[in-house]
Amino acid sequence: MSAPAAQPRFEPFRLRGANFNLLVLRLLDARPEVIVPALGDQFRRAPGFLRFAPIVIGLDDIAAAPHEVDFARLVAELRNIEIMPIGTTGGTPEMRSLAQSAGLPPLRAAGGREEDVPVQQPAPQPPPQAPAASAEPPPPPPLPEGMARPTMVVDTSVRAGQRVWAQNADLIVTGTVNAGAEVIADGNLHVYGALRGRAIAGGADNTDARVFALNFDPELVSIAGYYAVREGLTEAPIGKPVQVRLIGESMRFDKLG
């Protein structure tokens, strides 16, 4: 009698590393009662922006002592306005430890070194004094002289709900970016159709990046973290060919042609 055939092996899951483009909410104030209403005001001017989007909480700019930050309340109130905090970046080891106890693990940039994070104990004790936080990983080296920045080209329109990200590259969209869509470029962003969704250039803190659109009517436009929503574009030539750039910390909208 022949032996029964071997059953194929079933894999219940697989783990795979990946890079994601996440926005960082850099806290300049430690009080949830100040932070959350200010965010709510922004969302009322840009309905749908960041709704249910994962964000990282940046801790480097908080002047308050770690024990003065109510991370549990901050997480709960952000989720109440449909923002999903998933972790933290920066801050002292003590502050990261307190954030982790509220469900916000420390994250690191892709390619960066793991930070020295105290291990959480079942019964948390007052954290001991720890050395200063490790330095942020250095920015990527500039392109060699004479080498052009790589470019991603999208030959179709970008539909509502879609997100396109040109990592470490410029982005060219030959069609329309529809309302509810999002296009992101670490370099310059070109839209040769109508720009009606969200446009983000200079995603890697590149303040020299620019946004070009033949029909400019976005829900939101951002360069290197500075942004303006549709209701705030009173000086922009809506519906016209436009170039957007930063002058200092102000956004400038110039008609093309």
From TrEMBL:
Residues 13-85 form the Septum formation inhibitor MinC N-terminal domain. Keywords: Cell cycle, Cell division, Septation. Residues 153-252 form the Septum formation inhibitor MinC C-terminal domain. Residues 105-149 are annotated as: Disordered. Gene3D superfamilies: 2.160.20.70, 3.30.70.260. Interacts with MinD and FtsZ. This is Probable septum site-determining protein MinC. It comes from Teichococcus wenyumeiae. The gene is minC.
